Structure prediction request, 269 residues.
Amino acid sequence: MAATAGATQIQGKDDVLTVCATSIVAGILANVLHEGFGHAATALLTGAKSGVLSTVAWSSAHDSRLVAAGGTLANLAAALVFWVALRRAKNATARLRFFLLICLAFNLFDGTGYFLFSGFTNFGDWAVVIAGLPAHWLWRFLLVVVGILSYFGAVLVVGSGLVRYVGVPRNDSRRLTKLTLLPYLTSILLASAGGLLNPIGMQLVWQSALPATAGGHSGLLWLKYYIPKSAVPEGSSDSISRNYVWIAGAIAVSIPFIFVLGRGITLHR
Prediction:
């Protein structure tokens, strides 16, 4: 009874506004890495003279399989960096450890989820990568297989990280739900708000941005059922207390993300 009461007490102290704020910053970072560093930077470095960057797409006259793949590759590379940072942050605040965990989750789920998304729908970045290749059906099948395996692996990594490094016990279902459902819902709202003013049109939001976010981040909704039994907290299990710096920071980066990058900005080589 004492252990259960303690877990419930910690769960109740996780501040909703701060959890959402850290998730907003993590979501914006994952988006900019995908569209900006993954697509735009790759295009400008490999031949594009200019293009329009927004929260939902990179558009330029120069296109290639490498440019299309760049977004996923950037997210996967970032996920590795955040995983290493999270493992080394055992003595950091609960807020910072949670931020690193959600950055890991968003980048890893975006990266692995895109294989599955493009394989099933024949739409999006990896549909461009395999377009025109012989035995196209086989490439789509391989994308689905790689997507399923890598996405499930991502779920295991994120779930283990949530327990080991954020310090949420596997048996604390209520706290696990709170710290995964809030980032999931926040990421959908962020994708919706960021795509409202995009220069390509709302169709791209419904076809790509929202499905990729809602589907790609869906692992947050069920990862608690697949956390390995070997995962135990290795750091402190402190709650995520309210922090107005994080909240103000989330508001500060959201405004240009939605109203500047959301409208699209032109980049030149």
